[in-house]
Design brief:
Elements lengths: L11 H19 L12 E6 L5 H12 L3 E6 L11 H10 L4 E6 L4 H7 L6 E7 L5 H16 L12 E5 L6 H12 L3 E5 L15 E3 L2 H6 L4 E4 L15 H8 L3 H5 L6 E3 L12 H4 L6 H20 L7 H6 L1
Parallel strand pairs: 1-2, 1-3, 3-4, 5-6, 5-8, 6-7, 8-9
The protein binds phosphoric acid mono(formamide)ester.
Phosphoric acid mono(formamide)ester binds next to helix 2.
Length: 323
């Protein structure tokens, strides 16, 4: 794997490979082996042009647990604020010896540009680009679903037979897009639930069912309900009902959680707008996998960095090195 730019073009076998290597990584962490020597001598640059808590820290933790050197770059306080271009910024980091660049950018397609422009030779991992994709979020979501439904060791399994409802601000959500492609590639059925104004125009080309009524969608007994953050920073006010109306019709609260089958899980990529798309009792309920998703994110990002920088899947390599 040379880059990880999206899930739309990620083959089923490559997706399963990442999830299976993530299982290996998680096994080592659960045995309290915090650090593997696998990427010693490699440098990972976290290049963040947009804010992040989970993704940035998770990639940093993942790289450090594989013994890579990590350089954190935030556009705020850098020469980007003096007008420096993406090309010059990336080439500067390449000159400092980057082997992999993890990039989050407000422009859809920026990671693809970086990977294909010839400006740098490093591998590129998309950590979220505009409203386009957030592939490692979808991979950690799929990993979480697989573990919850198929047990601790679910290596090799896809998600066939499972039904996931993705609810909320689909229009602006790169998490929704990456999940639609990945979950359906892995055999799951996906329903999108949203106000009509927050459904993208090109959705008829997506392999999903559309619903506008959350209670009707819940009545279909989805295995997982994935709530999305309302992206007020990208929102055109004309598209958005009042917060009160949105919360009443499309928010997940305790009553809606209680209407789900007992095995169904409640997901959210974070950060959450508590009281808007999800109530505090839904977010903190025993059905919620929010913190599990965060923890799984480190294993999944270790797997992605490993596969980009060290190549072959470790046939129990992680375990061997940990001995
Ligand atoms: N889920 C997610 O991308 O969170 P951050 O914006 O905190 O990285």
């Amino acid at each position: 794997m040379r880059h990880l730019l999206d899930t739309r073009t990620l083959a089923r076998e490559d997706a399963l490979r990442i999830l299976d290597v993530a299982e290996d990584m998680r096994d080592t962490q659960s045995r309290e082996i915090k650090k593997l020597p696998t990427l010693r001598g490699k440098t990972v640059v976290n290049l963040f042009f947009e804010d992040s808590t989970r993704t940035r820290i998770s990639f940093e933790a993942a790289a450090k647990r594989l013994s890579a050197d990590v350089i954190n770059f935030s556009a705020k306080g850098s020469s980007v604020s003096k007008g420096e271009s993406l090309q010059d910024t990336a080439q500067t980091l390449q000159a400092m010896g980057a082997d992999a660049v993890v990039i989050r950018h407000g422009a859809s397609g920026a990671p693809h540009t970086l990977a294909t422009s010839g400006w740098i030779s490093a591998g590129v991992l998309n950590a979220g680009d505009g409203t386009h994709e957030h592939p490692t979020q979808a991979l950690l979501d799929a990993f979480t679903i697989r573990k919850r439904f198929f047990g601790e060791d679910s290596r090799g399994r896809d998600l066939a037979g499972l039904h996931v409802a993705i609810v909320g601000d689909i229009l602006h959500s790169r998490v929704a897009r990456s999940n639609v492609w990945l979950l359906t590639t892995l055999g799951a059925t996906v329903t999108l639930v949203a106000p009509p104004t927050l459904v993208p125009q090109d959705v008829s080309a997506w392999p999903v069912t559309i619903a506008y009524d959350l209670d009707e969608a819940i009545a279909t007994a989805p295995d997982a309900v994935m709530m999305l953050r309302i992206q007020l920073e990208r929102m055109n006010a004309a598209y958005f009902p009042t917060e009160r109306e949105y919360s009443r019709r499309w928010g997940l609260d305790a009553a809606r959680v209680a209407a789900l089958p007992s095995a169904s899980i409640v997901m959210h990529p974070g950060p959450m707008n508590r009281g808007l798309e999800i109530s505090a009792d839904a977010a903190d309920s025993p059905r919620s996998t929010v913190l599990e998703q965060v923890a799984n994110g480190v294993s999944v990002r270790m797997a992605a960095l490993y596969l980009l920088l060290a190549g072959e899947r470790p046939t129990n390599h992680a375990q061997e090195e940990a001995r």
